[in-house]
Specification:
The protein is α/β, with parallel strands linked by helices and 348 residues long. The protein is built from twelve helices and eight strands. A four-stranded mixed beta sheet has the order 5-7-6-8.
């Protein structure tokens, strides 16, 4: 795997690789503070920690979303580039909310979109060279242990999302304002960030984890829905702090349902009374009785028509999404077959 950026384009200069000399192992040291022994921006993770991969896995792995990946076509558009830039998120009325939990990165609900900030050490060429794309083991590793493949793919997929999130000067300003970039990036320009992140934009879908291979932004409400079936959990992630917030979302449909019932029952009652009065021979108000009877029938027909229209719209939107998702699956299969055939021809 190639290094997505060079030493000249790195945005963090706080780490340096120690010259191995006669040894086969390499270490990292802090150049800004020689007395510090932790990762930049991560004081709980020591540079020489034997558990550094476990700490990184907690920061980047998305096991639940990887499990859901074969079914995420039910949740979102099948495109890894389906990620709106930060200024587009603002145009849509979304508030950018920091979420350190990797599973929540690029999920949204209501007017909130959750984004995981860029860790400071991930901007260092030395860190990538030692811990993620290393060909030489460091002394903190188990002998000849290579970086976990799942971790490398998750880290590459996560970094690639910022290639789509920040494309304009306004995006960079929003990222700084929302603290998606570390403090050391307060003065960087768009040209500097572009030079750093461009290499991640060239990463292919088969080089990242399942969560990032085919999907960008995900709707949290749909994840909560399908988690009951595929993850056997009540919710993917609970964002309601109180029971009242959870049950409040049911109030509107329940009130709508009872409103429809009230209209229908009222119309039926008017119709029955009008018809009963006519049968008893009360003809002094025949015009009003006929009007009430037909008006009640018309009201029932209007309610049924509205219900059918809403049902039709729901079925149409559902079928349209299913058709779009199916086309996406077929296109990806054809594309994968073409790439496989091209590679076979090249190797022949």
């Amino acid at each position: 795997m190639f290094m997505p950026f060079s030493k000249d384009t790195q945005l963090n200069h706080q780490l340096r690789v120690v010259d191995p000399g006669a040894s086969d192992s390499r270490n990292l040291i802090r150049t800004d503070d020689p007395k510090s022994h932790c990762l930049p921006g991560q004081p709980r993770t020591l540079l020489q920690s034997t558990n550094i991969y476990q700490d990184l896995e907690r920061e980047f792995l998305t096991p639940d979303l990887d499990t859901l990946a074969p079914h995420l076509w039910l949740v979102a558009t099948q495109s890894s580039s389906h990620i709106s830039t930060l200024h587009e998120q603002v145009l849509k009325g979304c508030n950018v909310v920091i979420a350190e939990k990797p599973e929540l990165h690029l999920t949204w609900t209501g007017n909130r979109v959750f984004i995981k900030p860029l860790p400071e050490y991930m901007l260092s060429h030395a860190f990538w060279a030692i811990h993620l794309l290393s060909s030489t083991p460091s002394s903190t590793h188990i002998v000849h242990r290579e970086p976990p493949v799942a971790l490398v793919k998750a880290a590459l997929g996560f970094m690639r999302t910022y290639y789509y999130l920040i494309q304009h000067e306004s995006d960079l300003h929003i990222a700084k304002q929302c603290r998606l970039l570390p403090p050391s990036c307060a003065d960087i320009t768009l040209e500097q960030f572009h030079a750093f992140i461009t290499g991640f934009g060239d990463i292919q879908d088969d080089q990242v984890s399942p969560r990032y291979s085919s999907y960008g932004t995900l709707r949290l409400s749909r994840l909560n829905l399908w988690a009951k079936i595929f993850l056997h959990r009540f919710q993917f992630y609970n964002i309601n702090r109180q029971y009242g917030e959870y049950f409040a979302r049911f109030y509107a449909p329940i009130l709508f349902f009872f409103g429809i019932l009230t209209v229908v029952l009222g119309a039926m009652q008017v119709g029955l009374q009008a018809d009963g009065s006519r049968d008893r021979g009360r003809h002094q108000w025949v015009g009003l009785q006929e009007t009430s009877l037909w008006f009640s029938v018309a009201t029932l027909m209007c309610v049924c028509a509205i219900g059918l229209v809403l049902l039709f719209l729901f079925v149409y939107m559902l079928l349209r999404e299913l058709l779009f998702a199916t086309k996406g699956i077929m296109w990806r299969r054809r594309r994968h077959a073409q790439i496989k055939f091209a590679r076979k021809e090249a190797s022949a």
